[in-house]
Design goal:
The chain has 18 helices and no strands. With 386 residues, the protein is mainly α. Bound molecules: fe (ii) ion (2 copies). The site of one fe (ii) ion (FE2) has 5 residues, from helix 7 and helix 8.
């Protein structure tokens, strides 16, 4: 069996049949039940022995915000304008639109109105996946409260549960009241969330959620915040990012300690989990649900996207890994198991995925204080009042 058959359950990274074999068939059901594979752990050691986590906990308590009163929901949002801004930089839509009409182009019969519909659908789909990811974070962090054996981490994680509830609340409200409703969860994202919840090892929840899913979200929110001119969405993203920076820092601080005590075989398990999560997130951005809804040959479209030769397509994919790769490096996961003449296992995988160039980008262990926009707004308000 090849590496990808063992870890991903398909022939190769870009095997379209394997990618599409992951489907979400129960899109009409309201509840999704998934087994939680972990035990709940009490600790009787209440001593505050982890000062870095303690500082993060204090920061989280001071920088809570209220979705109801800190955002102005009366702002009129133009959904078409938001959709156009958000997709204007999407390299795949531009590429697909530039292809010559013909038998091998599933969008041959499309005119302006179909492309217009696609832009709106794509935007709702993308924000909806962040909504579902936020619910994943809510559930995963509640799981961490139960499973992590350290009191400082249980304290901090409890603040993240509140943060994530607020994030689910704001994305759901924005989609519902401003964009016309949400899309079902992407099949690859749901599979990843199920895998994280099913794992019995407490550190795997952190690796899957705080490092991988939230690392990607932080990079994507930063990008979306930069390009949108919608006042409500801009502030919403600014405040959500303030929280997310703490969450990624929580993952880095906790896992540094946990990994420093692990054997190389245990670290290899973590490397494989990180690789699998990275691939699931890359697959998610193929947006198969949108192409299904648009009624075109999904297989063919995904094949075209994977073959997109434009350099900006690769750049966009890479950008999503801007936080994940340096954080994996900081945790020692890139190079764990490296020997003379052999690179670290995860370094090789990230090279294959063409995302390794981020390895020395700023990691997120300490930057959360700089990213606290809530604290900055409050300081500015109190200066203005005095
Ligand atoms: Fe969040
Ligand atoms: Fe988060």
């Amino acid at each position: 069996m090849t590496l990808d058959e063992t870890i991903l359950g398909r022939r190769s990274l870009d095997d379209v049949e394997g990618i599409l074999a992951v489907t979400n068939t129960d899109t009409d059901s309201v509840a999704h039940v998934t087994p939680n594979g972990a035990d709940t752990v009490f600790t009787w050691d209440y001593s505050r022995s982890r000062p870095a986590l303690g500082r993060l906990y204090e920061k989280a308590k001071a920088s809570q915000w209220n979705a109801e009163t800190d955002l102005d929901w009366s702002i009129d949002v133009d959904p078409d304008k938001v959709a156009h801004e958000m997709t204007a930089t999407d390299p795949n839509i531009a590429y697909l639109r530039s292809l010559p009409k013909g038998l091998s182009n599933p969008m041959s019969s499309w005119g302006d109105s179909e492309w217009e519909t696609l832009v709106g659908e794509f935007n709702r789909w993308r924000l909806s996946q962040f909504l579902h990811g936020e619910q994943g974070a809510l559930v995963c962090t509640a799981k961490i409260v139960e499973t992590v054996p350290w009191i400082d981490a249980k304290y901090y994680a409890s603040t993240q549960v509140m943060d994530e509830a607020r994030h689910v609340e704001v994305f759901a409200r924005y989609l519902d009241t401003k964009l016309g409703g949400e899309y079902p969860v992407n099949a690859h994202l749901r599979m990843l969330l199920d895998d994280i919840i099913a794992d019995s090892r407490w550190d795997m929840t952190y690796l899957g959620m705080q490092i991988m899913v939230e690392g990607l979200a932080l990079a994507a929110f930063g990008f979306m915040h930069m390009i949108t001119t919608d006042e409500l969405l801009k502030k919403l993203l600014r405040y959500v990012m303030s929280d997310e920076a703490r969450h990624v820092a929580f993952g880095v601080l906790s896992l540094q300690e946990a990994y420093s005590q692990m054997t190389s075989a245990e670290l290899r398990d973590r490397q494989e989990f990180a690789y699998e999560a990275a691939v699931r997130m890359r697959d998610r951005f193929l947006a198969q649900e949108v192409w299904e809804r648009m009624g075109v040959d999904v297989r063919r479209v995904i094949q075209l996207i994977l073959e997109n030769p434009r350099p900006e397509a690769d750049l966009f994919r890479q950008l999503l890994f801007a936080k994940i790769v340096p954080n994996c490096k900081k945790l020692g996961l890139l190079d764990a198991g490296a020997t003379n003449g052999h690179k670290g296992w995860l370094r090789e995988r990230f090279e294959e995925m063409n995302v390794i160039q981020w390895e020395d980008h700023a990691d997120t262990g300490e930057e959360y204080a700089d990213l606290d926009e809530v604290a900055k707004d409050r300081a500015a308000a109190s200066t203005a009042a005095s």
